């Protein structure tokens, strides 16, 4: 007898979950535990570094090994009487928010492995030693670390497929659809967390280039555009090199610093976007010019 399609997908979920738990076991119980032990002996790297590399992998491992995998196994054993997995996945979904932490930390973690492998030969040797074991299947620590980052999109795909293959009258339909909705929200949540983190990192980098002026540093600002510009001086018909940063709420008119110690730019003017007017000028002598007039001041500028 041909197995129904939805059962095949449920079995694939179970098999990939089993493999995933083995991978988490390797990360948490082998890599993390052994690297931590050596760090505590003061032989390799600071304990803090090991903690930062593995983030909250222990919680993720415990959750999958002690809760989700056993529940899924029970469901598949009962499949002939009760063909359903939707309810278990609904229980899983809220816990997937734990991944936000891990995913957000991932790039930094991989960078730490690289940096400390160069700084500390014993650290590198220990990692190499673990990587040579059979359980690593010839793959690097970084490769294994990527697995949790890819797991949520995998749940989403499998579950989407499962819902599509369910017969309309299946008792699992309601639960499975609700579970898919929940997983979709979590996936969106972790993507939003990454995007927000990138935005803040970029913003911080801009603030550093501006010399961290107190009244400018605000985490809610959004940088829209930046670039070089020429200021036209009508008095002596000349232009001078300036630089603009346009945020959602303000325009910063800056002068590039000749000697770059710390900051690259000095903020000369800050004009509120509120009430700002921009008008193109048809100046034959200076093409591509426009006038910016704000509460604080009016400037005649020339673009490249």
From TrEMBL:
Keywords: Cytoplasm, Cytoskeleton, Metal-binding, Phosphoprotein, Repeat, Zinc, Zinc-finger. The keyword Methyltransferase does not apply. Residues 5-193 form the DH domain. SUPFAM superfamilies: DBL homology domain (DH-domain), PH domain-like. GO terms for biological process: cytoskeleton organization; filopodium assembly. GO terms for cellular component: cytoplasm; cytoskeleton. Pfam families: RhoGEF, SOS1_NGEF_PH. GO terms for molecular function: guanyl-nucleotide exchange factor activity; zinc ion binding. Residues 222-304 form the PH domain. CDD domains: RhoGEF. It is found in: Cytoplasm, Cytoskeleton. This is FGD2 protein.
């Amino acid at each position: 007898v041909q197995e129904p399609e939805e059962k095949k997908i449920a079995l694939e979920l179970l098999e990939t979950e089993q493999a995933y738990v083995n991978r988490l076991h390797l990360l948490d119980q082998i890599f993390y535990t052994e690297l931590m032990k050596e760090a505590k002996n003061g032989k390799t790297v600071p304990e803090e570094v090991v903690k930062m590399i593995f983030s909250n992998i222990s919680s993720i491992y415990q959750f999958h090994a002690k809760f989700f995998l056993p529940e899924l196994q029970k469901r598949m054993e009962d499949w002939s009487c009760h063909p359903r997995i939707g309810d278990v996945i609904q229980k899983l979904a809220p816990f997937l928010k734990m991944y936000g932490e891990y995913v957000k930390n991932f790039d930094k973690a991989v960078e730490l492995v690289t940096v400390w492998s160069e700084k500390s030969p014993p650290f590198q040797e220990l990692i190499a030693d673990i990587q040579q074991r059979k359980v690593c299947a010839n793959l690097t620590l970084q490769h294994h670390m990527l697995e949790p980052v890819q797991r949520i999109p995998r749940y989403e795909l499998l579950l989407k497929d499962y819902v599509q293959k369910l017969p309309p009258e299946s008792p699992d339909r309601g639960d499975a659809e609700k579970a898919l909705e929940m997983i979709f929200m979590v996936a969106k949540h972790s993507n939003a967390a990454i995007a927000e983190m990138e935005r803040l990192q970029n913003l911080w980098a801009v603030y550093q280039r501006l010399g961290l002026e107190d009244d400018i540093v605000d985490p809610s600002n959004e940088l829209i555009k930046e670039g070089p510009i020429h200021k036209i001086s009508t008095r002596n018909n000349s232009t001078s090199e300036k630089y603009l940063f346009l945020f959602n709420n303000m325009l910063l008119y800056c002068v590039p610093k000749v000697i770059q110690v710390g900051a690259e730019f000095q903020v000369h003017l800050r004009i509120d976007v509120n009430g700002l007017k921009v008008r193109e000028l048809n100046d034959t002598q200076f093409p591509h010019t426009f006038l910016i007039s704000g509460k604080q001041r009016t400037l005649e500028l020339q673009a490249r």
